[in-house]
Amino acid sequence: MDLKKLASALIPDKDLLPTAEYEKIYPERRMEVKAEVTRLAPSPTGFIHLGNLYSALADERSAHTTGGIFYLRIEDTDEKRKVDGAVESVIRSLRYFGIGFDEGAEIDSPLNKYGPYYQRQREKIYKSFVKDLIEKGLAYPCFCSEEELGSVRERQTANKETTGYYGKYAKCRSLSEDEIYKNLKEGKKFVIRLKSQGSIENKIAFKDAIKGEVTVTENDQDVVILKSDGIPTYHFAHAIDDHFMRTTLVIRGEEWLSSLPVHLELHKVLGFKPPKYAHTSSLMKMDGETKRKLSKRKDPELSLDYYRKAGYFPLAVVKYLMTLLNSDFEEWCLKNPDADYRSFRFRIEKMNKSGALFDLDKLNDVSKNEISRLSAEECFEFLNGWVTEFGTDSDREHFKDRDYIVKILNLILGVGGKKRRKDIERAEQGVRLIDYFFDDTFAPEYNYRFGKDIVNAVLDGFSKLYNEADDNSVWFGKVKQVAEDVGFASEMSVYKAEPEKFGGSVSDIAEILRIAVTGKPNSPDLCSIMKILGGARSVGRMKNGRI
Ligand code: GLU
Question: Of 65, 105, 142, 496, which residue is 20 to 30 A from 229 by alpha carbon distance?
Answer without folding.
Answer: 105
